[in-house]
């Protein structure tokens, strides 16, 4: 894929998934306020800045202060998703100066669905099951807790709302070795159907290195193709980036999550 094509795809990604994006969970609200697009969750889900377009450093500083006031009045912590191509060039430094804490940078990787393998090869005795009912979420959340740590209840609330109110936008998957849950993941579709995001995919340590991640990816590619998505995207941490690039993904942008100071 040439540089011009990447630039065009990045511009489309910014428009569809940042500037003109719909809420990514039921009950959330997306607003455009001046040069900022933000999401505010009413159910303890993700809140934060999705896109910003500043004409000057002064405008950036004013907008940062405004978002701190907005979320502070609601008592909500939030995240500012800063991309390397956002302006001004020192936006990250300005966020840090305002009290934000930078998390580990991630790379947005994209691939054309039609170019990816969509025939999963599962290890013997391993299968994937789609979860469509609330009762099936318990093992999904437990796998996430054991693999990623931390509080996974916000994810449970998000998935419960999605399954109840927007089931056509999400595919929740549980991978089983016999009846033992060993991995979990999801596919989320953009409202226009052009992009599909892959999330999760963590596998219990004892079951890594057996091809589960690759099979789970291929399974989600097949689901994305079935839904009519053209592009697959993922926010990849450094350990998973080379794996995904070998499978056909290309880097689109580097993004750094900046976490707000406590409200």
From TrEMBL:
Boundaries of each N-acetyltransferase domain copy? 126-263
Entry's CDD domains? NAT_SF
Highest taxon listed in the record's lineage: Bacteria
Supply the alphabetized keyword list.
Transferase
Molecular function terms in GO for this entry?
A: acyltransferase activity, transferring groups other than amino-acyl groups
Q: Which InterPro entries match?
A: Acyl_CoA_acyltransferase, GNAT_dom
What SUPFAM superfamilies does this protein map onto? Acyl-CoA N-acyltransferases (Nat)
Q: What is the protein name given in its UniProt record?
A: GNAT family N-acetyltransferase
Q: Which organism is it from?
A: Streptomyces triticirhizae
């Amino acid at each position: 894929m040439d540089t011009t094509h990447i630039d065009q795809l990045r511009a489309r990604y910014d428009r569809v998934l940042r500037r003109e994006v719909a809420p990514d969970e039921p009950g959330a609200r997306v607003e455009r306020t001046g040069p900022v697009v933000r999401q505010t969750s009413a159910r303890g889900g993700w809140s934060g800045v999705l896109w910003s377009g500043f004409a000057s450093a002064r405008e950036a500083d004013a907008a940062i202060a405004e978002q701190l006031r907005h979320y502070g009045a609601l008592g909500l912590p939030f995240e500012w998703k800063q991309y390397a191509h956002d302006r001004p060039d020192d936006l990250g430094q300005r966020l840090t100066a305002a009290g934000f804490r930078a998390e580990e940078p991630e790379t947005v990787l994209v691939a054309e669905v039609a170019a990816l393998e969509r025939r999963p090869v599962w290890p013997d005795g391993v299968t994937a099951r789609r979860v469509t009912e609330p009762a099936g979420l318990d093992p999904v959340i437990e796998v996430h807790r054991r693999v990623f740590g931390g509080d996974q209840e916000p994810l449970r609330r998000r998935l419960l709302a999605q399954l109840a109110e927007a089931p056509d936008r999400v595919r929740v998957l549980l991978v089983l070795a016999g009846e033992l849950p060993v991995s979990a993941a999801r596919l989320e579709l953009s409202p226009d159907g052009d992009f599909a995001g892959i999330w999760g995919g963590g596998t219990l340590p004892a079951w890594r290195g057996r091809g589960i991640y690759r099979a789970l990816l291929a399974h989600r590619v097949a689901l994305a193709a079935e839904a009519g998505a053209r592009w697959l995207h993922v926010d990849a941490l450094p350990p998973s980036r080379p794996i995904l690039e070998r499978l056909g993904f290309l880097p689109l942008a580097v993004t750094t999550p900046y976490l707000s100071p406590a409200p």
